[in-house]
Amino acid sequence: MQELLSICVGIGLAAACGFRIFVPLLVVSIASHTGHLTLAQSFQWMGSYPALVTFSVATALEIGGYYVPWIDNLLDTVATPAAIVAGTVVSASVFTDISPFLKWTLAAVAGGGTAGAIQTGTVLARAASSATTGGLGNPLVATGELGLAVFTSVTSMVAWVWGLLLLGLLIVAAVAFSIFFVGRKVFRRLRPATSVSAPVA
Which pLDDT value is given to residue 74? Predict the structure, then answer.
């Protein structure tokens, strides 16, 4: 049961990395530092003062960057691979009493995969916002992402069942939005090619 709980918590934290890379890392660092979360032996450093300060500064810079026009889109170009790495690390950090092979397999596939799926959805949402509002709606997207990052991180640790349900809904929403966005672009590109002009009398 303890192993299942740690897996659920890890996947939930990885999902939060899809919204903001450093917010879940900061939450884990605070929770570990205050004794509310037990980290795997090789990740005890995440609860140290240097890690807490580093994650705090990185979180502040990341949050601020997403409110600067065009910088937010630039951050998205590096955020997806970074989110996958962060999701893998943060999930592995809470996988306790699990064999190293299973830990890193779950961390890479479930943790990194979940973070990547969520991050892809946020990238598409910001791209849609930039295209339709000229970037004016991006701060609203950024605020929503930040709120979901904090909520998902905390919920994953204090109410993991609800966190797991939320994770499922977020993944379904991200996949559905990705399919809709990509399908819409493909349809727009194919429509002119398939249209037949009327013959001239």
Answer: 86
The pair phi, psi for residue 197, each rounded to 5°, is -75, 150
Neighbours of 113 (CB within 10 A): 17
Instruction: Report how far residue 22's alpha carbon sits from residue 88's, in angstroms, rounded to the nearest whole number.
Output: 13
pLDDT digits (tens, 9 = 90+) for 154-168: 888 876 555 556 666
CA dist 67 and 154 (Å) reads 23
Phi, psi of 98 (to 5 degrees): -125, 145
Work out the end-to-end distance of the chain between its first and last CA atoms, rounded to an integer number of angstroms: 77
Q: DSSP letter at 66? A: T
User: Which amino acid is present at 194?
Assistant: T
> Rounded to an integer, what distance in angstroms lies between the CA atom of residue 36 and that of residue 198?
70
How far is it, in rounded angstroms, from Cα 80 to Cα 180? 19
User: pTM to 2 decimals?
Assistant: 0.78
Q: Three-class SS of residue 18? A: coil
